[in-house]
Amino acid sequence: MTVRPIRIFGDAVLRTECDPVTSFDAELRALVDDLEDTVREPGRAGVAAPQIGVSLRVFSYNVDDVVGHMVNPVLTDFEGEQDDDEGCLSIPGLYFPTKRAMSVTATGFDRNGDPLVIHGTGFLARALQHETDHLNGTLYVDTLTGDVRRQALREIRRLRPAPPAR
Predict the structure, then answer these.
(1) Please, are residues 60 and 67 in contact by the beta-carbon 8 Å criterion?
(2) pLDDT band (50, 70, 90) for residue 166
(3) Which residues are part of the catalytic machinery?
C-alpha cells in the first residue's frame, strides 16, 4: 500500500494540462493502485494524478464507500445545477460554494484499457467534475466568481508564505 503525499497550491504540476495515457501497462496499474490507496485516507473524495506529482489523465474517487478510478475521462451530459461548498486536498482547509452540474457522465477507461462509463449524480457528479478539472490544470477556485472568488484568493494568499526577497 502506497499513500502518496499531496501536492499543494503553488506547485506547477497542478496548473499544467495532463498528458493522455497511451500505454495501459504495469506502470499505469501501479499509479492507479497508488491513487486508490491515497484516496482511501479518511476525508478524501478524490485524488487526481497531478495531485501526487504525475502529469497523466488519471484520477481516483471515493464516494459512498465506493473507490474507483478513471483514465482519460471525458465528461458529457451535464444536467441540472448544485451549489455546495467544495474543498480540495491541494488547498487544505478552505471550502467555498462552487457551482457544478447535478449530474454528469464520465467516459474513459479502466487501468487495463477497457471502456468505462460512470453516470454520477449529486456528490459523485461533483467529484467527477472536480477531478477532471485537475487533469486540465484547473483548480476549483478558478471556477468561482465575484465576491466568493475574491474571498478565496485572499484566503489563499493568507495561507501561502510570500516568496523570499531577492
Answers:
(1) yes
(2) low
(3) 131
